[in-house]
């Protein structure tokens, strides 16, 4: 009885592994950047921005050497802007805002030696429900959402660099 259930369990697990591998599923790995982007000049229009700090740590996780001083032939990544906008999605019966759509816009430029600059722009969206009765909790939730948007934006920049 025990051997039959163990055999059945191992057969089910083997079938699941076979199904996952045959459907093309692969675990997501770190983006492999081209060799010429493994050493990179990085600057921002606002060097104190939270996205700039997040981007620097994401590049460090991808084993990119970030140069502080300007070098002649080194590629340069410039974080041009990041902005958070919000749009009203719905209202309560009394006219107060019930739900917002957060729009996080990011633009950056990659300049390689001897090539034209490549300018990139993207937007990330999140829905955010507002509750005037819990203003402090909602302010904390907004801070967490904004941090997640910055992380997602920095990861996307690194992924896009791998494709440029």
Mean pLDDT across the residues is 82
Stretches where pLDDT is under 50 for at least 5 consecutive residues are none
The helix/strand order is HEHEEEEH
Q: In terms of quaternary structure, what is this?
A: single chain
Strand proportion: 25-35%
What is the overall number of helices? 3
Helix content: 25-40%
Shape: flat
Task: Say how many strands there are.
Answer: 5
Give the helix/strand class.
alpha/beta
Features:
alpha/beta; 164 residues; 32% strand; 3 helices; flat; 5-stranded mixed β-sheet
Description:
The structure is a single chain. The chain is flat, with a radius of gyration of 23 Å. Helix content is 38%, strand content 32%. The termini are far apart. With 164 residues, the protein is of the alpha/beta class. The mean pLDDT is 82. Strands 2-1-3-4-5 form a 5-stranded mixed sheet, with helices on one face. The protein has helices at residues 2-22, 50-61, 135-163, and strands at 39-44, 65-67, 76-91, 97-111, 118-129. A hairpin with a 6-residue loop joins strand 4 and strand 5 (118-129). Helix 2 packs across helix 3. It is built from 3 helices and 5 strands.
